[in-house]
Structure formats: C-alpha cells, structure tokens
C-alpha cells in the first residue's frame, strides 16, 4: 500500500492584508507540495478576537486565489475550534503542567529575568507560588495559563529534536531547547489557547507532515516540540525559509506598512509579475 501524500499548510492571521512575504511563503508551500505530490491546505489563524476580522480572512483567501494557488476546502478557522483547545489545556491542568497567572504586562516587564527568543520579557514564575492566588481566582480575577517548564521537562526529560527538511525535502534534525521560552503562555486571558498551543493541535488534526514558514518562527518550534511530546501528537518536518526584507533590512510586516498584494494589484502588478519577482515563474 502506498504511503500517504505529504501535507503542507499556509496559515496566515487575518489582522491585515497579505504582503510579498506572505506570498513567498504561500508559493513556497505550494511549490514544495506540488514537487512532492502532496496536498496544500490553508488555515486561518484567527484566535485573537481584538485584531482578527472575518473580512480580512476573506480578503486573504481572495489574494491567494488571485496568485493562482489551489488549496483544499473547507478552510480550517481556529475560531471554530476553541473547545478543542480548551480541552487540551484542561488536560495539561489536570496533570499539573500549567498554572494560572494574574500578572499584567507591566508587572512581568518589571520582574523579568531576561528575554525569550522573540525578545519579550521572560516570565520569572511569580504566580507559581503566589499566596493570594486562590482568593483572587475565586473572586473572578482574569488570568492566563502558563506552562510550568520545570514540570513539563520533568514529565519528558529525554532530549528533544526538531525534524527538519530543506527546500528540496531532504530530511534532517537539530536539537530542541524549549527551556529558552520559560513558562510560556498557553491560555490567554481572553481565549482558552495561545498561538503555541493552537498551532500544534491544528497541525495534528489536519495531518500536516511539513511545516514551511518564516525563519522568525524557527525558535518557536522548540516549544512546539515539547508540547507535541506532552500531548502525544506527531511531529511534522519543519523548513524555515529566509524572510523578505525592505531596503532598510527590516522584514516585511503589516505593522510596518509594507505594501499589500491588494496595493500592488491596484498599481497594475499581475499575479505572474509577483511569481516571477519571487522566483516562482
């Protein structure tokens, strides 16, 4: 019996319009999927209720179709699977692997013990033994849920590795160091998950075998490998491609006002122009 085809996914967040960096990642996923006779999925990562909008999600899908991408329907939307994420978080709670955190961003910044790989303040574990924690939770104080990294590593003390693949699909591996993330947030105050928890659950649910995404998410993979081990999930192979940058050397980003695909289309740029510019003619 033949092996199942590899599964790739492109997973944007609808908090702005797609730009050339997104186009490169989407086209690379499509190119690798086609070359390896695999499947291409699109997932809308819209767990952030304050920044993500349905109209932007639809605009993203329209942009991808304009680029000529063909992906399977229906498209998975994270906002439709919050119960799944909550159940996984509850399982970690039952095993004592997460704890509630009441701290504000200001409190975390003031007490920080360093920086995580994204440059954010590293949480010092303030709420792990907080004396007033039970009373404040009983009073309904909003709280996040953080991974207890020490307990998590005790639960799976063996070395972890990230399974990799280069652009040609050649497999490899590298050591994973999830400890660099400290007690990362797995459940936000406003939704019962975080990017880290949702993404590993989604990849497993969709049978994703190859995760192709930007280099800026390479370090996050170490934490994802730990969560996969804790939750008994399979691990895809990861390929983290170089980021497109502007003339100042900064990566293209919606927050920096990088021109969107819609802007370029309005200027008369065609989908074929984009593909040639990005090396996918």
Structural notes for this entry:
This protein has helices at residues 20-35, 54-66, 82-94, 105-111, 133-138, 149-155, 195-205, 220-231, 261-266, 271-277, and strands at residues 7-10, 39-44, 76-77, 98-101, 144-147, 161-165, 171-175, 185-187, 210-214, 237-241. It has 281 residues and is α/β, with parallel strands linked by helices. The chain folds into 2 domains: 1-80 and 245-281, 3-Layer(aba) Sandwich (Rossmann fold); 94-206 and 213-232, Rossmann fold. Strand 1, helix 1 (20-35) and strand 2 form a beta-alpha-beta unit. It is globular and about 60 Å long. The mean pLDDT is 95.
Find the CATH topology of the largest domain. Rossmann fold
Instruction: Give the strand order, joined by hyphens, for the main sheet.
Output: 3-2-1-9-10
β-strand percent reads 15-25%
Helix content bin: 25-40%
Number of DSSP E strands: 10
The low-pLDDT segments are none
Amino- and carboxy-terminal Cα gap: 35 Å
Q: What is the succession of H and E elements? A: EHEHEHEHHEHEEEHEHEHH
For the CA atoms, what is the radius of gyration? 20 Å
Biggest sheet details: 5 strands, parallel
What is the CATH C level class of the largest domain, in words? Answer: Alpha Beta
């Amino acid at each position: 019996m033949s092996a199942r085809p590899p599964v790739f996914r492109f997973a944007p967040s609808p908090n702005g319009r797609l730009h050339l960096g997104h186009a490169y990642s989407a086209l690379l996923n499509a190119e690798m999927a086609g070359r390896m006779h695999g499947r291409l999925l699109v997932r809308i990562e819209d767990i952030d209720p304050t920044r993500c909008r349905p109209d932007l999600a639809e605009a993203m899908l329209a942009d991808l179709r304009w680029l000529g991408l063909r992906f399977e329907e229906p498209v998975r939307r994270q906002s439709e699977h919050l119960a799944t994420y909550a159940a996984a978080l509850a399982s970690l709670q039952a095993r004592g692997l997460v704890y509630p955190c009441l701290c504000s961003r200001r409190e975390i910044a003031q007490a920080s013990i360093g920086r995580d790989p994204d440059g954010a303040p590293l949480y010092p574990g303030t709420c792990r033994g907080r004396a007033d924690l039970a009373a404040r939770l009983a009073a309904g104080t909003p709280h996040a849920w953080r991974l207890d990294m020490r307990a998590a590593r005790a639960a799976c003390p063996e070395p972890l590795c990230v399974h990799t693949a280069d652009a040609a699909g050649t497999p490899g591996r590298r050591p994973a160091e999830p400890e660099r993330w400290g007690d990362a947030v797995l459940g936000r105050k406003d939704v019962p998950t975080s990017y880290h928890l949702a993404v590993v659950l989604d990849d497993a649910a969709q049978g994703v075998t190859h995760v192709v995404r930007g280099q800026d998410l390479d370090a996050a993979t170490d934490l994802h490998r730990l969560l996969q081990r804790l939750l008994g999930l399979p691990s895809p192979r990861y390929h983290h491609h170089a980021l497109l940058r502007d003339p100042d050397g900064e990566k293209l980003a919606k927050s920096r006002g990088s021109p969107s695909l819609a802007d370029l289309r309005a200027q008369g740029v065609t989908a074929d122009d984009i593909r040639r510019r990005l090396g996918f003619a």
